[in-house]
TrEMBL record:
Protein name listed in UniProt: Acetolactate synthase small subunit
Catalytic activity, EC: 2.2.1.6
Organism name: Rhodobaculum claviforme
One Gene Ontology cellular component: cytosol
Subunit structure as annotated in this protein's UniProt entry: Dimer of large and small chains.
Reaction equations catalysed: 2 pyruvate + H(+) = (2S)-2-acetolactate + CO2
Pathway the protein contributes to: Amino-acid biosynthesis; L-valine biosynthesis; L-valine from pyruvate: step 1/4; Amino-acid biosynthesis; L-isoleucine biosynthesis; L-isoleucine from 2-oxobutanoate: step 1/4
Listed InterPro entries: Acetalactate_synth_ssu, Acetolactate_synth/TF_NikR_C, Acetolactate_synth_ssu_C, ACT-like_dom_sf, ACT_dom, AHAS_ACT, AHAS_small-like_ACT
């Protein structure tokens, strides 16, 4: 029997049946991309995602090396392992990109998000909002007679949980930074 043929009832796959070896399970990955800090770079990176139909779940960018004029873009995206590898390869080929790190596969990483929540309420709802903010270690950064603005930092799950608890108490508005992440250790 030729190695490229499949016997009836056999669990062996043909070399032509490549789809059987690829995972169709989508995974979420955090990518850290070091780029030149110059006009249009972020638009080019985002254009790579948009042009190929890839979604960005979270995006943060800031200058991290003032003297070297470099910025770090942290992107959280979801896709099959093959799609993630394709994204990393395409990012790595872009001229203003210096480094691409997949923090999800390179080892342990620390991820945090900052969010601001405006919660309006009176009476018991106001007291409950303050109590929950204390439990979540959220800071009150603004207060009026009708509302609070809370600041919270932590994992995306923590921020999501705080939002869900604030909704029935009068959540009016929220702003989120997106994920900032660094690899642990040296």
């Amino acid at each position: 029997m030729s190695p490229l043929n499949i016997e009836k009832g056999s669990s062996k796959h043909s070399a032509y049946d490549l789809r059987a070896s690829f995972s169709e399970v989508e995974e979420t990955h955090t990518l850290a991309v070091v780029v030149d800090n110059e006009p249009g770079v972020l638009a080019r990176v985002i254009g790579l995602f948009a042009g190929r139909g890839y979604n960005i779940d979270s995006l943060t960018v800031a200058e991290t090396d003032h003297t070297g004029h470099r910025s770090r873009i942290t992107i959280v995206t979801t896709g099959t392992p093959q799609v993630i590898e394709q994204i990393k390869a395409q990012l790595g080929r872009m001229v203003p990109v210096h480094e691409v790190h997949d923090l999800t596969v390179e080892g342990a990483a620390v991820e945090r998000e900052l969010a601001l929540f405006k919660v309006a309420g009176r009476g018991e709802a106001r007291v409950e909002a303050l109590r929950l903010a204390d439990v979540f270690r959220a800071n009150v950064v603004d207060s009026t007679l009708e509302s609070f603005v809370f600041e919270i930092t932590g994992s995306t799950q923590k921020v999501d949980a705080f939002a869900e608890l604030m909704r029935p108490l009068g959540l009016v508005e929220m702003a989120r930074t997106g994920i900032a992440a660094l690899a642990r250790g040296t």
